[in-house]
Amino acid sequence: MRQHTLLLAFALALIGSAASAACTVEYKAKKGSQYVHTRMSVPDSACSVGAATPIVESALASQGMQLLAIVKVTPGG
User: Fold this and answer.
1) H helices of the chain, where?
2) Nearest to residue 75, comparing CAs of 10, 3, 9, 24?
3) From the CB of residue 74, how many other CB atoms can be counted at a distance below 10 Å?
4) Closest by alpha carbon to 24, among 57, 73, 58?
5) 43 or 21: which carries more pLDDT confidence?
6) DSSP H or E segment with residue 40
């Protein structure tokens, strides 16, 4: 019975991690005269340039940064 419980717990953990997989957005941004080229995670529902753009812009604006370009969106999972 203990093996079945462990197997069930493992299966549920795998399902949970797949459901919460996020996409990675690679972008270029600037703050004043400082430029950055980095990445951030966005929800799977925003796994396109069009859907990710407002999320990235909002996150960067809260840091006083301006999005210049989204370079690549990579699905998670």
Assistant:
1) 2-19, 49-61
2) 24
3) 12
4) 73
5) 43
6) strand 34-43
